[in-house]
Specification:
The protein is an all-alpha fold and 536 residues long. The protein folds into 2 domains: 402 residues, Growth Hormone, Chain: A; 98 residues, no CATH class. It contains 26 helices and 4 strands. The protein is globular.
Length: 536
Amino acid sequence: MVNWTKLTTNVYVISGWASIGGIMFGFDIGSNSGTIGTKQYHEFFNNPDALLQGGINGALSAGCFVGALLSGWPADRFSRKYTLIGASALFIIGSLLQSAANGVPMLCAGRVINGLSVGVTSMVIPLYQSEVSPKEIRGRLVAIQQWSITWGIFLAFWIQTGCAHIEGTGAFRAPWAIQAIPAIILCAGMWAFPKSPRWLADKGRMDEAIKVLADIHGDGDPNHPRVLVEVEEIKAVIKFDREQASHRYTDLFKPGIAYRVFLGVCLQIWQQLTGMNIIMFYVVFLFQQAGIGDSQESTLIASGVSYVLNVVMTIPAILFVDKWGRRPTLIFGALAMSSFLWIVGGLLTTGDWYIQMDPNETNYGKWAVSLPNKETTNAVVTFVYLFVCSFAVTWGPLGWVYPAEIYPLRVRAMAVSLSTAANWFFNWLLSFCVPMMMESLRFALYFLFAAFNLLMAIHVYISYPETKGFTLEEMNIVFETNPRKKIDRAYVAARMKETLGADIENAEVNDVEQSGEKGEIGATQDSASGKKEEVV
């Protein structure tokens, strides 16, 4: 017989269920990505030009920007849990509007509503996951959000590929209706899971917070060493925070916080400027532009492989992000993506560019390229695939992990809301501009994003400290250090004690232990034994 209490307090199950919100986002992106390459879509919506298509695509991102920007207040006021439930209900409404669209205005309205929902969930999910996770596997649990996004894109793309054979408007209405399914599942299931213990503590509901911590980290025992340590740290930080400031947006610009807000916002902007979302969103058109595939179906299949790779290559990030560390993973990923984009752009310069004037083709009247031979065509596909793999294992998950773990509790929801809104603003900006940029810049567009990736590698090296293995409460100390130097855990423990006036010397629980059922985690007591643990 299933032990539902044990199941709904397992940190992997909690994080995995919350991540269904990522599938919602992926579904919305994937279904539209496949749709814009079909004849049924172009016929019904009267062959939207680059400007109009950019507006349709950008409607989702515009909604996401507003949703993310406004999500901090409900997440703090009503809890992370109830905010997710409300956002998923909103997504159902948007999906139904899209599937019933009788023209571009109704389609855009549905996409804006879906965007509001996705903007909220994309902020709240990693926030909720980070607050219920043990520090040793926090990166892994938050990275599940990105994996869910890739699954949503993957499933939606192949559903769209199958639906493309439907005659008439069902070819795009069916995928837009199906995307409501994960929202229904999330909305119904989240009621069974606990509220964030840190949110409960911040609201003065410490008894409830202790019970949740005992259930998720102590196998139901409130006297478990890990639970006692976490409660002590949380109480001390809440007391310290309340002495420093209140829960106001102006707190984001105070010393000690403003720089972290800047880093979080920059990281989310950089994630968009990798070029990954643009390549995934326009992958069908990209391959059509490069003359890859001799039919709509073969082009869709060639494009679909990139979605498969995106799913598969996110798995190593989930498994090893807490071993590799944040800094080296981000730097390596940016350099790898930059290299592959330089190569793709260089290969496309070898072709003959022309405006395709065949009205039977979906990219009628747009730039296309005739590459010199099959080998060059295959090389373009290969390096696009390598680019996708590089993103999936690095910036994809860490773009959500890092901002969710670096802020103090009193401003965490507001700060993550701001950084996520920045992500969606640039997502909207790029999705609106890129169709026109593809026509004007052609191969130079890939050089532009390659340069962005190089710049972000430099920025991470100079400014971003390693956060692997530290509790959320220790981040204030971590960000006092030089980001380019190793951080001594014993120093962090001593500074915690000095700053908070709390007994943090025993803040590490002996030995990392994970049970298959509970995912219980302990940590090696290096600082107590006088042994220094360092992180790159």
